[in-house]
């Protein structure tokens, strides 16, 4: 056959971080005609990643609008991709994870009978509203996918239980670990001067992100009150909270934590700044999904500010704890890690179950084998 035409589609910063090393790996393959389409579901934060990895999209739908709805995102992606697919006629499209771009991209390809590869497939909470809308985005994408790139054996088992053809599942590890091999530097100097002035050796610096829809309102309030108490009760603690720009989150955070000593409220950082802050910090508290994979790679304990996670491997391995949004529970678990060296060491030294930096290589090899271009074997991640 002629060159295999592959279009990689993503639209948010987390997707871009995890797809960037795969894009770079596909570019090395002479047998693949690789193109990139961004939806720009998130504009500014997406562009930061594109610049970092020197990725120039072939197509940019630029769909982001003020106060955009899930319905609006879905319809704009469907309409934009329809024209691109009709023009390009790709053999395979690749989408990542659980965003609305992911689901709409897979659906648009299905409508034109184009094969779909789902990177980071098989994660489940089995509660369709937690995380919302990500759980159903991921399941619905899986329903139309032809190739399922599961990051862990546990993700593969989820897919097998749902009746997915075993021959279509490839255990690869998570591509975010590939990305961190590029972004983390022990000698890194932050662009943000406030971060350069923090004493990472003399203080226990806690990196925080919390912004998920299911935590809006009472959840974010509780998290902020807990953080206020933690820093007030522990004089050797500083907190760096990367505050989401959405006013629903930002206004609450600044109201409760805006005047608290040793609490640094910063806008979201670009990928390299974020990964290097994580590398310097003492521990992480987050309701994010991706940080549950990234922080353990750097030996940082993670307290997850959610009641459920689609990443149970880290909980089982001991690198992550689910603490929810109850104030007393958050404080107890954080204080245990701040004051109990044995507890901290057990989490920080646990083995990261998410990857070895070779996920993109495994995915590209799987694609070439699936389409009969190369028959070389490779070892799955375990």
From TrEMBL:
InterPro entries: UDP_GlcNAc_Epimerase_2_dom, WecB-like. Its EC number is 5.1.3.14. Residues 24-367 form the UDP-N-acetylglucosamine 2-epimerase domain. CDD domains: GTB_UDP-GlcNAc_2-Epimerase (cd03786). GO terms for molecular function: UDP-N-acetylglucosamine 2-epimerase activity. It holds the Pfam family Epimerase_2. The keyword Isomerase applies. The keyword Isomerase applies. Keywords: Isomerase. SUPFAM superfamilies: UDP-Glycosyltransferase/glycogen phosphorylase (SSF53756). It is an enzyme of class 5 (isomerase). NCBIfam families: wecB. Belongs to the UDP-N-acetylglucosamine 2-epimerase family. This is UDP-N-acetylglucosamine 2-epimerase (non-hydrolyzing). It comes from Clostridium carboxidivorans P7. The lineage of its organism: Bacteria, Bacillati, Bacillota, Clostridia, Eubacteriales.
């Amino acid at each position: 056959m002629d060159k295999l035409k592959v279009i990689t589609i993503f639209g948010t910063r987390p997707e871009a971080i995890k797809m960037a090393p795969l894009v770079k790996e596909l570019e090395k393959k002479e047998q693949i005609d690789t193109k990139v389409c961004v939806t720009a579901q998130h504009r500014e934060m997406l562009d930061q990643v594109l610049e970092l990895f020197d990725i120039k999209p072939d197509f940019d739908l630029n769909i982001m609008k003020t106060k955009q709805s899930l319905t609006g995102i879905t319809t704009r992606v469907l309409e934009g991709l329809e024209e691109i697919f009709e023009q390009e006629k790709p053999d395979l499209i690749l989408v990542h994870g659980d965003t609305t771009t992911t689901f709409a991209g897979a659906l648009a390809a299905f409508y034109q009978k184009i094969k779909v590869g789902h990177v980071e497939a098989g994660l489940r909470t089995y509660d369709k509203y937690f995380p919302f809308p990500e759980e159903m985005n991921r399941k619905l994408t899986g329903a139309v996918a032809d190739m399922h790139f599961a990051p862990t054996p546990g993700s593969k088992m989820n897919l097998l239980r749902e009746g997915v053809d075993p021959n279509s599942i490839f255990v690869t590890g998570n591509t975010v670990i590939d990305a961190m091999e590029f972004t983390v530097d022990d000698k890194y100097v932050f662009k943000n001067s406030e971060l350069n002035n923090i004493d990472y050796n003399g203080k226990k610096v806690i990196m925080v992100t919390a912004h998920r829809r299911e935590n809006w309102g009472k959840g974010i309030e509780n998290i902020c009150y807990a953080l206020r108490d933690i820093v007030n009760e522990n004089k050797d603690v500083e907190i760096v909270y990367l505050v989401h720009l959405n006013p629903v989150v930002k206004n609450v955070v600044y109201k409760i934590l805006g005047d608290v000593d040793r609490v640094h409220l910063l806008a979201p950082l670009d990928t390299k700044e974020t990964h290097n802050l994580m590398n310097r910090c003492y521990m992480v508290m987050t309701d994010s999904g991706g940080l549950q994979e990234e922080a353990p790679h750097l030996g940082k304990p993670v307290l997850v500010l959610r009641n459920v996670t689609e990443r149970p491997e880290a909980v089982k391995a001991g690198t992550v704890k689910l603490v929810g949004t109850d104030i007393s529970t958050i404080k107890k678990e954080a204080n245990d890690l701040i004051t109990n060296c044995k507890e901290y060491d057990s989490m920080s030294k646990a083995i990261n179950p998410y990857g070895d930096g070779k996920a993109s290589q495994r995915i590209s090899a799987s694609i070439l084998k699936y389409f009969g271009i190369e028959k070389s074997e490779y070892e799955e991640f375990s």
